[in-house]
Write a structure and sequence with these properties.
This protein is α/β, with parallel strands linked by helices. It is built from 15 helices and 23 strands. Bound molecules: S-adenosyl-L-homocysteine (SAH) and FE3-S4 cluster (F3S).
């Protein structure tokens, strides 16, 4: 039987003789930050319109996409290892095509095709709408590359297909790119200049999520506090905005309030906050709306003024401590987490001690801690020597992690004996008999299932804790259901 292959308007659906549209199978894997996971949902949505269904089975995939991360060298090595695995799978499934998306795609561009023979397609973070055309190229046997960064692409008009979703929590992206130019960071190069998404489309997405039963959203951006909508365009072009655009501009505090009011029972989180851009009105907005969670991820990277300056973090240790004081004053129950880098070029033992003493001051609830990894093309790579020996970086990192663990335990202990409101996200990883959820402060809470179910807001009496988890027993539904 001869198959008639016909291109539909979008180019890639295959029509069989009996007019049945075949679906192809997409296997998509994401690495790195939450933004990548969120982007993969946008990609799945774009490709669903092209007749692709997602699959969890690598062996049956027609198209394998890997959404990559460049933030540290190790993240890139992980992706390279995965590509080796795909190579092996291709021996069994020779028709499988492989595309790389995300930050490594943007960083390496067409070099990727030379370095990794398995790769058929390279697509940067702003080029996903071009995927239908690029897939057509690879279907016709050519390699395809699009790594053009955009001034306005925010994918605001695309309803993401929720992947691996628990049906309860979801990400909603609000800005793309970053203008901060921290000297160690590759993100401004791989994700381009900062731009914000139309608040109208953000609210619509939040409303749709609520209608589908979602109970918690996280507003996502590299630097959410820098959010600024004035009708479109780059953040840095705001100075060219008309008086009317200025007068009606929406900043992050305003957006947060709009979202909180649009769905008063939806829990709202956001990530990531940059200390230099976080304003008091954001903290005050959090205090005003009980559905905005009491949790701020506030990376500082170092406690040393000299290192902060070399990193181009545009605040001092003192200013950061004042911000912490303001958060504690306005939101006494607020959890705060950090990102830290150990062993930035020229970091001395004294600088490292400054980091530890800043940690003592804040006593973070949790943190994400890394050894400095030089990234090609960044200012630090071009202007500074990666001169802290690997074993010194490792030892300092160990000290930072150990101290964080101590502070984590100090914070979790404060919850013991109290009753926290928890949103149930799913079964505990360790025990089928227990639910896992989070309290407002974003701490994981585990408790026996009883009559409760996924998506319920439950009051849990906290009885015990580790440095990162609270253990307790449900004492009833909260009135947020
Ligand atoms: N604003 C972003 C930060 C992205 S990078 C966000 O949304 O989280 C996440 C963290 O990775 C940074 O805060 C920093 O602590 C770490 N990081 C970035 N570049 C790094 C590098 N070159 N070496 C080690 N850690 C790095
Ligand atoms: Fe990177 Fe600094 Fe932006 S860490 S993402 S350049 S705020």
């Amino acid at each position: 039987m001869e198959k008639i292959i016909e291109e539909d308007r979008q180019g890639t659906s295959l029509l069989l003789e009996n007019n049945e549209v075949t679906t192809r199978k997409l296997y998509i894997e994401s690495y790195g930050c939450q933004m990548n996971f969120s982007d993969s949902e946008i990609v799945a949505s774009i490709l669903a319109k092209e007749g692709f269904n997602t699959t969890q089975e690598l062996l049956e995939a027609d198209l394998v996409l890997v959404n990559t991360c460049s933030i540290r060298e190790k993240a890139e090595q992980t992706v390279r290892k995965r590509l080796e695995k795909f190579n092996a799978v291709k021996k069994v499934n020779p028709n499988m095509k492989v595309g790389v998306l995300g930050c490594m795609a943007e960083r390496l561009k067409s070099k990727f095709l030379e370095e990794e023979k398995i790769v058929d397609m390279v697509v940067g973070p702003d080029a996903y709408k071009d995927l239908p055309n690029l897939i057509q190229e690879i279907d016709e046997g050519r390699n395809a590359v699009n790594v053009i960064l955009s001034k306005d692409e925010t994918y605001g008009d695309i309803a993401p297909v929720r992947l691996n979703s628990n049906g309860v929590t979801a990400f909603v992206s609000i800005t793309r790119g970053c203008d901060n130019m921290c000297t160690f960071c590759v993100v401004p190069f791989t994700r381009g200049r900062e731009r914000s998404r139309d608040p109208k489309s953000i609210i619509e997405e939040v409303n749709e999520l609520w209608a589908k039963g979602y109970k918690e959203i996280t507003l996502l951006g590299q630097n959410v506090d820098s959010y600024l909508w004035y009708g479109g365009g780059l953040k840095k072009d705001f100075e060219k905005a008309t008086p009317m655009q200025r007068a009606t501009a929406v900043n992050f505090a305003k957006l947060l309030e709009m979202v909180a009011l649009a769905q008063p029972k939806m829990r709202i989180r956001f990530s990531t906050s940059n200390p230099q851009d976080m304003t008091l009105d954001v903290i005050e907005t959090m205090a005003k709306h009980s559905n905005i969670c009491n949790y701020i991820h506030l990376p500082v990277q170092s406690g040393s003024d000299r290192i902060l300056k070399a990193m181009n973090r545009l605040h001092t240790r003192q200013e950061y401590m004042e911000l912490i004081d303001n958060i504690r004053r306005i939101l006494p129950d607020c959890a705060i987490s950090q990102d830290m880098i150990a062993g930035f070029p020229t970091e001395t033992e004294e600088d490292h001690q400054d980091t530890l003493s800043l940690m003592e001051y804040v006593k973070y609830d949790f943190g994400f801690m890394f050894a400095y990894s030089e990234r090609p093309g960044t200012l630090a790579a071009r202007k500074m020597n990666d001169d802290v020996p690997e074993e010194v970086k490792k030892r300092r990192l160990r000290e930072i992690i150990d101290l964080q663990q101590k502070h984590g335990l100090y914070r979790t202990k404060q919850h013991v004996g109290k009753v926290d409101e928890v949103l149930i996200e799913g079964p505990s990883k360790k025990s089928e008999a227990h639910w896992m959820g989070r309290n407002s402060q974003n701490t994981v809470v585990v408790f026996p299932k009883e009559q409760y179910t996924i998506g319920d807001f439950v009051h849990v009496k906290i009885e015990d804790c580790t440095s990162a988890t609270l253990l307790g027993e449900a004492v009833g539904f909260s009135n947020n259901n």
